[in-house]
Amino acid sequence: MSGTSGSVRSSAAAAGAAVAALVLLTACGGGSDGSGGGPEPESSYSAVVAAAEPPPAEGFTPVEVEGVKINAPKNWSVDNTGGTLCMRPPGQDGCGYGAIQVLPHVAKNDPNKWPSKQYDAANGWASKPDTCRSLTTAAAGDVGISGAEKVPVDDPQGLAQHADGLKSHHRVWEVTCENDDTFEVRLWFLPQSDVAVYVWSADAQYSTLYDEVAASMDVTAYNDR
Fold first, then answer.
1. I need a labelling partner for 32 at 20 to 30 A (CA). Which of 5, 48, 117, 202 fits?
2. Between 1.10.3120, 3.40.1000, 2.60.40, 3.60.21, what CATH number should domain 60-224 receive?
3. By percentage, how much of the chain surpasses pLDDT 90?
């Protein structure tokens, strides 16, 4: 009998300790609803485990060139060659009309240092702004330009913010060809990073998509190289 009573006392003590621990945990905000003042997982473990990158927005696939990370529309083709990246919309075989280009070291690699000095000019839409890029003339490239003008963008300072928090110079041009065709060119340029997102000749049906792709750019890894 003495052994049995000792076992009962031990069980009662263990149960009492468990109850006390539960009370203490509740008092410190450790309840399952997370409403207490305890630290969040990120602040508790950020020094040990790096925070996971957020998933890409629905309808996009993450791609990368030279450390520049950006989201590509899922149904678009992606060419990643020669240190540049091109996203082509459905039905487009070349990196021209409607396509989005991502250009690391853009001014460094351009013979005219475009767009570092030209991005704010009326004819700053290309390194050599002399050839029509409308849908009907882009492939042949045999029609000249009669004029171009900058189009206002949403931000009055002409800036756009990207996924890494950096702001680029955002420019849009409307260009008129000698045959009276018109086309639009879009540019997001980070001068210190020397990276550009460039819409060579915009397709109006993708207007919002262009902005979403550009906004997703992250040059953190590129600048860390």
1. 48
2. 3.40.1000
3. 73
